[in-house]
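Hi L.,

You mentioned the student needs an example of a multi-chain input paired with its predicted structure. This one should do, with 553 residues in total across all chains.
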Amino acid sequence: MGAIIKREIGAYFTSAIAYVVMAVFFLFSGYFFWNLLYYDTTSITYYVFSQMFMIVLFILPILTMRLFSEEKKQRTDQILLTSPVSVWKIVLGKFIAADIIFLCCMAIYIPMVLVVNYFAAPNWGMIVCNLIGMFLLASAIIAIGIFISSLTESQIVAAVAGIATALFISMMDTFSSAIQIEFIQNLINSLSFMTRYQDFYSGLLSLADVVFYLSVVGLFLFFTTRVIDRKRYS
Amino acid sequence: MVEVKNLVKKYGSQVAVDDVSFTAEAGEILGFLGPNGAGKSTTMNIITGYISSSSGTVTVDGCEIMDDPVGAKSKIGYLPEIPPLYVDMTVRKYLEFVYNLKKVRLPKTEHIDEVCTVVKIKDIQNRLIKNLSKGYKQRVGLAQALIGNPPVIILDEPTVGLDPKQIIEMRNLIKGLGKKHTVILSSHVLSEVQATCDRIIIINKGKLVADSRTSSLSDTLSSSHNLLLRVIGTPSSVMNALRSVDGVVKVEKGKFVYDGCYEYELHTDKATDPSKGIFYAMAKNNTPIVLMRSNELSLEEAFLKLTEPTVPGKKGGRS
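Structure written out for the whole complex:
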């Protein structure tokens, strides 16, 4: 598994995907942060982290698009699947690699928080809560992206399908208000990534939200292993 | 070392591999021969655990591929038809990745150096794989299969796309590997397997049609030996004299060679060698033999005979 994590991270940086994703992430984080400082608005958590929801949703499919599609296209999955490594570890290795790249993106918040700390005493609890929330959200999106990538041989298809899924996730709350049936509304609300994320940037670290995101991760990574195995056992 | 039993692979209603069984002993080079689409790659993919079989078992050095995939896979080095190379890595980085992926315990730097020396890619270690020629890519693919010194090495058409010089080098390399490893290689080129393998398995349309040592393959295919004769003399008297020789089953008059000289095709009994008797009979008959040679099936003919569509009533030579 270590070998796969190392290789994937290396590939992210040689193919420039890591730089592009990080640059976009830094740009938007920086822009929102500048807004925060310039307009002297409420708090870093509310202003920066709430806005970043959409950005996280839409840049992560770029990170996950090639993880399995490219392996299949180049036939390199043969070396992975004929090596003494279980399918679970292959999937997990790729997931962790993408997660580490996202952690590199999140590193931009260290200087930002320090700047805030210079001007005022920030609420550290809130900030940690937000970082956890963003990391969990990203992990869930990465897991979904990996699953989509395992379904196709084309990076482009994986990216487009990933972004479409992101769009759907971001619009779930709109659907809920459009549908008048209470049962469905409740269902959509409980599955809404946005509502769950709101809890975090409101400073609420709830076990239910953490379990929700971790379940999404577990479920989609499991689906990915099933997709890979199904192809082999068909 | 490798034991394949009653292997079947079905894709829907299509049978890709149909009840194939064979074993490869330690230190043996086994050739897997068949026309394109015969099921060679499918069989190899099943042995290496890349795809599953519909039924049947594959045991590699005591490990069953379905029950103990990690154990079995750690004993196999596999070079698929298209080498599984990460083109954006350098050769060295790629081999290090494979080393880590296979959890090899040998000393890292020395082992990778050794493998590079064996396949002669030492001087291109720091080049990106995407910039390499086909021949070098194939060698890097082979190096990848050798990492970890697995007891079993499986090569799927290892010489496809190489130039004649590289083919000879690759053959010698494979022969060298056969001393320490069990090698299974596939090919649709006969001379290829004939040159490198100790034993040949012929597969056609998913079915095993022959399994024998390379040297005796054409032997086992034909129940009777053939002799080709050129004799000077009247055909009728020559044929009469030939028929009387002990061990000769059938005589056929062949083509006209030159004035007074004809070719004769003789089907002979396998147990007795009639060539001496033929010599004396012809000498007595005063019809000199100009040429006599055994007219056995060449491997090429044997292959074609085995893989041609079976005519009803005419059974393929299964040994």
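You could point out the following to them. The domain at 223-294 of chain B is CATH 3.30.70.100 (Alpha-Beta Plaits). Residues 311-319 of chain B have pLDDT under 50 and may be disordered.

Best wishes,
N.
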